Amino acid sequence: MPFLSSDRWQRETGSGTDLPRVFVAKVKGVSQLSAVDARALAAGLRTGMALADARARLPRLHAVAADPSADGAFIAHLGDLALAFTPSVALDPPNGLALDITGCSHLFAGEAMLAARLQKALCAAGVSVVRLAVAPTPDMARALARFSPANPCFAEDDALVRGLPVAALECAEDDATALRRAGLKTIAEIADRPSLLFTARFTSAFTAKLARILGEEDNRITPRGRRVRYRAEQRCAEPVASHDVIARLLSDLVVSVCEQLGERSVGGRIFTGIFMRADGVVRRIRVETSQPTRNPDVILRLYRDRLEALADPLDPGFGFDVICFEAIRVEPWIESQGTFNAQDDQKDKVAQLVDRLSTMFGRERVMRLHPLDSHVPERAQTMLPAALSAPLQEWGQGALQAQAGLRPLLIYARPHPIDVKSDANDRPESVRWRRVTHRIARAIGPERIADEWWRPASDYGTRDYYRVESSEGRRFWIFCGASGDERQRWFLHGVFS
Question: Which of 62, 158, 362, 436 sits at a 20 to 30 Å CA gap from 462?
Answer without folding.
Answer: 436
